[in-house]
Amino acid sequence: MRIEHVALYVKDLEKNKHFFETYFDATSNQPYHNLKTGLRTYFLTFSDGARLELMSRPEMAEKEDVLFLTGYTHLAFSLGSKVAVDQLTQRLADDGFEIISGPRTTGDGYYESCILGPENNQIEITA
């Protein structure tokens, strides 16, 4: 068994698609639009085959802007090395994204940093 994909509701599909294409080398399909429901989506595919569905629809409600809520909390991307984590973290910081932790080695041995991407979705970058 494997997870087929993870979905993320976003307000700005294009901005989020661009973010994942730019920083995580995602490849997008063509946009989907359901005229009946207003749902719009992109499927983003990453180099290892993992997929992320970005979704938007007119009746979405705003979530509370608190970092530590129950439920899904972050997406994690493994880059393969500490150097790659350091470089991408610095690139994201230089481009104006908030670094909320790291890069650092965690108590359980991960080398990681955490950033807030578009719409304050938390992204973990690991070696």
Question: How would you sum up the major sheet?
Answer: 5 strands, mixed
Low-confidence stretches: none
Number of strands: 9
Shape: globular
Radius of gyration: 15 Å
Mean pLDDT over all positions: 92
Order of helices and strands: EHEEEEEHEEE
Helix content: 10-25%
How much of the sequence lies in strands comes to 25-35%
Distance between the termini: 25 Å
- Quickly give the structural class: alpha+beta
Number of helices: 2
Describe this structure in words.
20% of the residues lie in helices and 34% in strands. The chain has 127 residues and is α+β, with helices and mostly antiparallel strands. Strands 1, 2, 3, 4 and 5 form a five-stranded mixed sheet that branches. It has a four-stranded mixed sheet with strand order 6-9-8-7, with helices on one face. Strand 3 and strand 4 form a beta hairpin. The longest helix is centred in the C-terminal third of the chain and has 13 residues. It starts with 5 loop residues before the first strand and ends with a strand. The mean pLDDT is 92.
Summarize this structure briefly:
With 127 residues, this protein is an alpha+beta fold. It contains 2 helices and 9 strands, in the order βαβββββαβββ.
